[in-house]
Each structure stands twice: as C-alpha cells, then as structure tokens.
Specification:
alpha/beta, Aspartate Aminotransferase, domain 1, 12 strands
C-alpha cells in the first residue's frame, strides 16, 4: 500500500478523508475496520507478558479500532501521536494535567471555552497551578506575561462564543522562547481549515463530538502532539487511565469520511446567513471571522483555509435590563433551530451566550449575544426561522 500512501499524501481533503486511518487489506478487504471490544489481552508466554513485547497489551492502551482512528487524526494533524478521551473537555484537561505541576504558571486566553475556565479556576488552582488570563489580541506581546515558571500557554482561535482571532504563530514563538508548551483548542476549524502544528503549536485539541462525529450522538475528544511532546502526553494519559471506547471510535471514524463535504455546506450556509444578518436592523453586530467587517478577519484570512458553521450575533438590546427578555423571545420563537449547547451536528442550534466569567473580553454592551450553529437544512428554511426569532425579539 506504499503507492497508495504516496498518492494520498498529495490528494485533496475529501479524497484523504475517504481513505485514511486503516488499510482494508489488513482486515480481509473490508473497507471499515472491525470494532474490537477489549480489556484483557493474552500473551503467548511469560517473557512477552513481562516486557509487553507485543503490539497490544491491554484495552486502555489501544485496539485496532482506536488505532485506526488515531492514525486518521495523525494524518490530518501532521502529528506524532494522538490520544482519544471521552469528551471535548477531557481533551483539554488531560494535557493540562500532563504538562503542569504545582508551582507552575499557565497563561490561558480570556475567550476560552467556559468549562476550561472552570477547570482552571477550581482543579488547577487546588493543585497549586497559578492561572492568568490574557487578551486574545495580545500576539507577540504575550512575552511580557511570561514568567520563569510559565509552563503552558493555551490558545483558542477563534475564541469561544465571541470568535476573537489570535496570532497563533507570534504567540507560539514567544511562548517557546520562554520554555512553555503551547496548546490550542482547534474545534471550530478542524485540521481541514487550520493545522495548528504547522503554526508552532505543540498540542492540538479537538472536541471530536462536533464536526468529526457530525451527528450529535458521540462524545469524544482527541489530543494530538508533535514529536517533542508526544511521549509526555502519552505517559500522562496512561497514568490517568483515560481512553476512548471502540464503539465511539468506529462511529467517529465513519463520521470523518463525510466531514469535508459537511464542512463545505456548513461554511457556505453560515456565511450566507451571516452576510444577510449584517444588514438587519435588529442585529448590532455579527461575530464571524470570515466577514471583512470582523476585527480579526485579516488573521483568519492569513492563516485559515475556511470557516465552519458557527457564529454569534449581538441583538439590539435597548437597555441591559431588556437583554434576557429579548434573547428569550428570539429563542422561543424558533422552530427549525433546537435550543442546545453543542454544535457541529447536522441540525441547527441556538443558545443565549453567558459571558459573565470573562475578565478581559467582556460581554458586548449593545445587547445579548446569541450563538447560532448553522446545520445542514436548506438555507431558505433556516433564514425564515431566524426571521421568526428577530420578529419576536423586536416585539418583546
């Protein structure tokens, strides 16, 4: 299969997604890998058992099913290794625990996924790690925040809910000069639209629950590392005994096959709707990095190959005491959109964003922020549903 690997190396995204991760000839020609359910693995003799001198030794250390998924993710990320964990949040917390110790200092972007902030403010604090939040627009200026004990700089581009962009290369270069590991939550873009390790990042994190799975029925996270940091990530994960299940890995690998074509549809529909919403009087701002009006658009255009299907709008709120009523009126009028906290699936979702935990990137003052996940429905129907929401908000 060497010839096939060489062809795939130069192939397009959808071609690669259709073929990476496993060799059908390893499994009698079946195009999908088998689902191997495993805990105990037997050894042929005591010496092999003592030295674990065979490919598989216990279910937590991998199976043909989980390895097929890890191989596929490594192909997409350009990484030395990938671990599978049970959720997107675990994909953040496991590397934090693997690379941070008591007495360390960590720099976390202020527009971070809010459960990540909760973990930092509770568990990391209790374990003796000092956490400092920084402005996503800081760029190379992050060097001013580096301390002798700064061991990790965490990024997220674009930022959670408000979509601030970051100059990842400038941040990574400054962090590395100070001896810190650089991680990123790259869930929004996926490795199809942004490859973090090519921009200086050491650890790439994904809530694979979202676009890789794509069908709102799988919980899983992936963490991929470059060659320098892979051994420590792998050892940390083994020490905690955290792993992804074979059934979910199989479903996720199947979802990967169509991720490229789904992302194209998500991107196209979301951008059409974002452009339309910019012209609505009820909307003060549209927070979408692919819009030329967005403050971080130039960074997005420089570094990213595309945009996914999630963005936010800031409604005209009249006065702060009206924000909640306006947001709830909008949400309750929707019929196509579901009200739910996830995204990346086939269906459109909406949520009133809570930004009360921010310390630097404070909530917009003009009105409530509504996050819209644009699904695979017809744009005409999605637009009509948003119009229902806008009419209800206007009347509230």
């Amino acid at each position: 299969m060497k010839d096939k690997a060489e062809v795939l190396a130069g192939a397009g995204d959808n071609t690669r997604l259709a073929h990476i991760g496993n060799d059908p000839m390893d499994f009698h020609g079946f195009v999908n890998p088998p689902v191997v359910h495993a805990s105990t693995v037997l050894f042929p003799n005591a010496a092999t058992m003592e030295n674990r001198a065979q490919k598989y030794s216990y279910g937590t250390r991998g199976t043909p099913t989980t390895d097929a998924l890890c191989d596929a993710i490594n192909e997409l990320e350009g990484s030395a290794g990938t671990i599978l964990v049970p959720s997107g949040l675990a994909a953040v917390t496991v590397p934090f625990l693997a690379f941070l110790s008591a007495g360390d200092h960590a720099l976390i972007v202020d527009s971070v996924y809010s459960p990540t902030r909760h973990f930092c403010d509770t568990m990391l604090k209790r374990l003796g790690v000092t956490v400092e939040y920084y402005d996503p627009a800081i760029g190379a200026g992050i060097a001013r925040l580096m301390r002798p004990n700064t061991k990790l700089v965490h990024t997220e581009a674009p930022g959670s809910n408000t979509f601030e962009m970051q100059d990842i290369r400038a941040i990574a270069d400054a962090a590395h000069k100070g001896g810190a590991v650089v991680s990123i939550d790259n869930t929004w873009a996926t490795p199809l639209y942004f490859k973090p390790l090519d921009h200086g990042v050491d650890i790439s994190i994904h809530a694979a629950t979202k676009y890789p799975a794509g069908h709102s029925d799988i919980l899983m996270g992936t963490v991929s590392a470059n060659a320098k940091h892979w051994p420590q990530l792998w050892e940390g994960n083994l020490a905690m005994g955290i792993c992804g299940s074979p059934d979910d890995s199989y479903q996720l690998l199947r979802g990967l096959r169509t991720m490229g074509v789904r992302l194209e549809r998500h991107q196209e529909s979301a951008l059409r709707l974002a452009e339309w919403l910019e012209g609505r009087d009820e909307v003060v701002r549209v927070l979408h990095p692919a819009l030329p009006s967005f403050p971080g658009h130039d960074l997005w255009k420089r570094d990213f190959k595309g945009a996914s299907g999630i963005f936010s709008i800031v409604l005209e709120g009249e006065s702060p005491d009206r924000f909640r009523a306006k947001a709830h009126a909008f949400l309750d009028a929707l019929r196509i959109f579901g009200l739910g906290y996830s995204w990346g699936g086939y269906e459109s979702l909406a949520v009133h964003v809570n930004l009360s935990d921010r310390t630097i990137c404070k909530a917009p003052k003009e009105g409530p922020v509504l996050r819209l996940q644009i699904g695979l429905e017809d744009v005409t129907d999605i637009r009509a549903d948003i119009e229902r929401g806008l009419a209800a908000a206007r009347a509230a």
